[in-house]
Amino acid sequence: MERGMIAELKNRIRDIPDFPKKGILFKDITTLLSDAKSFRQAIDILSHRYIGRHIDLVVGIEARGFIIGAALAYALNAGVILIRKPGKLPYITHKTAYELEYGTNEIEIHKDAIKPGQKILIADDLLATGGTVHAATRLVKELKGEIEELAFLVELSFLKGREKLKDYGVYSLIQF
Ligand code: AMP
User: Fold this and answer.
1) Rounded CA separation 92/111 (Å)
2) Ligand 1 atom with minimal separation from the 161 CA
């Protein structure tokens, strides 16, 4: 029953070839999010996995991770906190850099976003190479959060992002 639902959700994702640059097949989730039933189903399935696991905070990674993270936090009666690109968060931050195909990127978190020992679920729309979420785990660990799991709507399994994330549980709803 859930398999059929997940196949339907998968069909809602639109492929955009050569975006944002040549050779990348972009998985566009806006067509899933804009369908009320699909959005609810996706969040319901994800959140049911974590009910009873006492999640204190869901971390959303800018920008599509905010959508998934906020909806999950609401469903789990948890708080939501933000990991953002540099210069966007107004208070004092911790920052970390990570490798991209060309060059590096940075993300940051408010230094007081997590109290030591709080149980954290990290959420993003899509797991590709795992570089972004690995950087997010470093920020959460620096603030002494306890990472319960990493949750994604979509995983591009062929990019083997999980191999970078062996220290954590990784869950994705839809795989390509
Ligand atoms: P990565 O650090 O390689 O795991 O990339 C993760 C981030 O890049 C995710 O937050 C996605 O939003 C975005 N991303 C990477 N590759 C794709 C893709 N093929 N389609 C859509 N989004 C992607």
Assistant:
1) 6
2) 4
Q: Helix/strand/coil (H, E, C) string of 32-96?
A: HHCCHHHHHHHHHHHHHHHCCCCCCEEEEECCHHHHHHHHHHHHHCCEEEEEECCCCCCCCEEEE
User: Does any ligand 1 atom lie closer than 6 A to the CB of residue 64?
Assistant: yes
28-37 tens-digit pLDDT: 999 999 999 9
**Could you give the domains of the chain?**
53-175 (3.40.50.2020)
Cβ–ligand 1 distance for 162 under 6 Å, the answer: no
| Active-site annotation holds for 101 | yes
pTM over 0.70: yes
